[in-house]
From TrEMBL:
One of its GO terms (biological process) is methylation. This is SAM-dependent methyltransferase. The keyword Methyltransferase applies. One of its GO terms (molecular function) is methyltransferase activity. The lineage of its organism: Bacteria, Bacillati, Actinomycetota, Actinomycetes, Kitasatosporales. InterPro entries: SAM-dependent_MTases_sf, SAM_dep_MeTrfase_SAV2177_type. Keywords: Methyltransferase, Transferase. It comes from Streptomyces silvae. It comes from the Bacteria.
Amino acid sequence: MTSIEIDTTKPHPARLYDWYLGGKDNYPVDEELGRRLTAFAPVIPVMARMNRAFTHRATRWLAGQGIRQFLDIGTGIPTEPNLHQVAQTTVPDARVVYCDNDPVVLSHAQALLNGSDESALGYVQADARETDRILAEAAGVLDLGRPVALSLNALLHFLSDEMGAYEVVEQLTAALAPGSYLVISHLTPDFHPEEASQKVRDMYKANGLTLDMRDRDRFTRFFDGLDLVAPGVVAAEEWRPELGEPVPGQESAHSGEYVAVARKA
């Protein structure tokens, strides 16, 4: 993997997420926006942890269903435990490919993969819209002729309809074998006053970032043609909570996002 120049003049979603989680792999421009957003909505760091907790629970469930291959697009900066660690706790031979477009994530991926079993872990440096490239490179680690769990968590709200969000999901799922699963978490305005949601969207836009918080109908459209797994489309904290520990502070907060897992028949 080669190094790529890091743009520190504008925030990046992966580094913002890292800042929300208390990480150190972010820049002043990320921290500045993060502080402005949390000053307006102090619950955001708890929401970020609730999203991550959902990812862990969904991964445990999928591993329990016998899924041994995972493609995580928009992975963000690694935070312990990483998806492959969660999966391999249940399925030791699980294979995982991570994908992100932030060079900071690339630097972590290089360290993460160094000394690892090359047959079990991979990383693709690409924009989520480069679906052909992602699939081609992922095929170096994953057998796309067998079921794969595709995770698009906290990603698609950064792609508007005009940017091809639905096409990305359609192209990726079309390439997966029957028995594969799609996992999505996505910010929504449905659980918050419209004025507050619009304020957050405006703050992202002012920093050159797209934030399309879809309502329930628009979120559910991502799963057209797939079979939703119970409990269906729900808030993150409501998806099989017995598979993980509650996030500190979630009892007085709301994740502000819809989540769902669906199977390709």
